[in-house]
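Quality-control log, excerpt.
Job 1 of 2 completed; input and output follow.
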Amino acid sequence: MARIGYARVSTLDQDLDGQLDRLRAEGCAIIRAEKVSGASRDGRSELATVIEFLRPGDELLVTRLDRLGRDTRDVLNLIHECEQRGAFVTVLDPHVSTRGEMGHVVLTVLGMVAQMERRFIKERQREGIERAKAAGAYRGGWPRLNRQHIVALRAEGLGPAAIAKAVGCSRMQVYRILYASTLEA
């Protein structure tokens, strides 16, 4: 039986150290971490690796339920997949596990709360953007990646994985940029 930790933050400038320290303190021998949105499971390769790795009796630990995801259905499907593999899911804050029946109820409610919180965040963000636009102060988001550099690296013959490693992003981001560049051409 292994204790496997999973840590996630949404953006590249956020820090994983607190989650990693907590998971190590809980005795996780294996910890997978990634910096990607929890809005859906798309592009979350480390989470997919963890799920594939789970064996009967293993325990998947996360510091908070929203680290698994912000969509109730995704979280419940993920928990179901873990259980199909004979593994348990444990959330450290608040401490809830799928080892008991009550844990399922609590995790369902926490999943709904995480989804509501995401909706509230998006609503506040939308309102803030509208206020900024009305005041003439909104300029949109700033580009986080140099798209021309990515296209140039591809033209030099580098593959998506090598490009992603070179510029510090996911392969999915590279694919999106390369696809968008073909549409613009």
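Job 2 of 2 completed; input and output follow.
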Amino acid sequence: MALLITDECINCDVCEPECPNGAISQGDEIYIIDPALCTECVGHYDEPQCISVCPVDCIIVNPEHTESKEQLQAKYEKLSGK
């Protein structure tokens, strides 16, 4: 399951540097998460770092990109070359 930043985002800039996969970037109005790069921090951390630092709790599971832990692990391995 890739994550999604909702329109409650206040553009505080704390999530982007926390993403180990570089999946978060500034969109037209708010930050966005690239589902092709988001592993919910599987392979890096026990929990998604963007969610843990977000001061307004605007990061949710993206219902259009549901993946199992195994799929997220496989994506991590592909992205990291492992």
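Post-run check on job 2. The CA atoms of residues 24 and 33 lie 5 Å apart.
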